[in-house]
Amino acid sequence: MALMGRVRLIEASPWYNGNEFYADWKRSDGTNFMPQVKDESKWGTAALLAKRLIKGSEAGSFKYKLHTVERKLDTKPLPENVPDENYPNGAGGIDALRSYAFMFNGETPAYNNDEFIYMCGYSSTAGDSPAWIATPTSLGGGNGLNITYATVKAFRMEDGSDINNSPLYPTNYWEAIGGSSQSFSDYTLPSDAAKMFDKMEMRFYASVGLTIATGADFLTSEPKVIRLSRQLLTMLMVLLHRRPIILKIITTLVLPARSTFIM
Question: If DSSP codes are grouped into helix, strand and coil, which group holds residue 182?
């Protein structure tokens, strides 16, 4: 069911649904491989399949549920607009950054993660490996993948608001944050980091390596300062390009949109 939902989601997306870029890609009989007329009803089909999986999990028919990590002393306080009741009625009692990051950095073994529906192994050595390619050279990787600023701006602010239209995003984004460095969830955001990186949602800090940010080296889970870049999570491309099939939405901030089907 998850596979069907994923396929239907791609079918509904602009990648496939009415993609005019591939207008000249046709079968031998002249029909288009990709439909040139957008059909918005395809979103409904994908949503229905995802809802069946969600409802089935909530009813106990499936074992799947969102991966969460309990709140710790260094967990960042919730913004005022986020419900603070204990999960699943709110975002209380959980650590949003660790809940997201631990799925991909090895802290939570895959066989203990009830959010994974399908998974496959990966290689961190040289070759055709997203993990190796995305890792900076200073950490033994290929340094072959970098995200664009447009991808950075696809993340949301800590209150769930759109970064492109949020009062939390500063106009003087290039200036240093100032004050004291911020530490939360084993992550440190130095005071001399640019303001454009302040008050971001937890997915951002778990996924994007900043020039002067410090954090855990995900290869060893030991705190280190890496000046050029911190290793991106091993499934970076999956994190940034997949669409959400989630079991319960509290808010974009609390349990960030993420797929339970890992491609």
Answer: strand
Query: Distance between CA 150 and CA 153 in Å, rounded?
Result: 5
CA distances to 20, 88, 138, 187, 230 from 190, in Å: 45, 32, 21, 10, 14
Specify whether the CB–CB gap between 231 and 136 falls below 8 A. Answer: yes
Cα separation, 251 vs 143, in Å, equals 33
CB 184 within 8 A of CB 95: no
**What is each CA distance from 201 to 172, 181, 251, in whole angstroms?**
19, 17, 11
* SS3 of residue 223 by DSSP: strand
Tokens for 1, please give them.
Answer: 């069911």
Entry pTM: 0.69
Whether 167 contacts 258, CB under 8 Å = no
Q: What pLDDT does residue 231 have?
A: 35
The answer, yes or no, to whether residue 260 has pLDDT greater than 80, is no
H helices of 20-129, in order, are 41-59, 96-101
- For 216, the enclosing helix (H) or strand (E) is strand 214-217
